[in-house]
Amino acid sequence: MVSCALQHGIPEHFCRRDTFFTAKGIVTYVEIEQNVFLPNNYRIMEPTFPFPKLDFVSKPSCAEIFEDWLNITKRPIPAKPPKEVKESDKDAFLLNGYSFLYEYKYSNEKAARAQVVWNEIAKMMWKPRKYVGGYGNEGLAVYYAMRDYRLENMTGFVIGSREPWIEVLALRSGASKVYTVEYRATRVLGTDRIEYMHPIDFAEKWKENVEKFDFAITFSSIEHSGLGRYGDSIDPIGDIREVQKVMCLLKKGGFFFVGLPRGADAIKYNLHRIYGRMRLSMIMAGYKWVAMYRGDSPYPQCPRREDYEVVHKLQHEIHVLRKL
């Protein structure tokens, strides 16, 4: 495989200049490209900082993306999710050892079977913003992101939603229609601008929805994908698959608001992943990074290296991306 330096026609020291903080110590872009990105079908297109711009080595088709995802959902699911990462799966889950593993807390929270009813959406539309969002001050970042990048007359979907706070904020940002893609059966009352879809039904209808949507939003959801916490199939790249599905369904230039816990790249098994510069770079492949919001600050924030080198702590932030 052609090295980062040769590929871009620049001195080798340029690609070695920027480094990643990892479970194996501080390492170069060259090392991460060879041992993390390439094995996951990505390559560095531009060695930018703090997130190198990646592209696919071989871009999967939407048919492949959805077929693979649907096949994984058909795998047998154990009565209880595994309490630790299998030895045979560690390289895939931990980015060949460059991601930290925290054996933090075990959780078994299969999606509730009882239907939930959303019947206070009209009231939520008029609440002060700090009382609408979930996750305390961290949830306010979603409001500020959609205040600056409005969804006027747009149609989109939300991935994972226990309460309709993101849907309400999207409507308040001008969205005309929002689909909630959630495993728990949800009945929506009082509005026809929010509609529920089960994730498997949504995926099976992908051909009808290719490049149909103007925006997609996820906040504190896809970091759980593939860890088994909610009774889902074990999949080391469950979060990456979700992002790739979104890419197929967004129009060119469509917005993707991605809210994730940030810190040094890690997994708190089996609760969630933490996103550092390595995994975030893969999440952003195929998208243009536009802005990032964090906490209750009304202004976009600049990603700093030290933010992604924090160990054992996390803070949610939301990145605004646009499909290339």
Automatic annotation (TrEMBL):
Q: List, alphabetically, the InterPro entries matched.
A: DUF268_CAE_spp
Lineage runs: Eukaryota, Metazoa, Ecdysozoa, Nematoda, Chromadorea
Q: Can you say what this protein is called? A: Methyltransferase type 11 domain-containing protein
The coding gene here is Acey_s0078.g1175
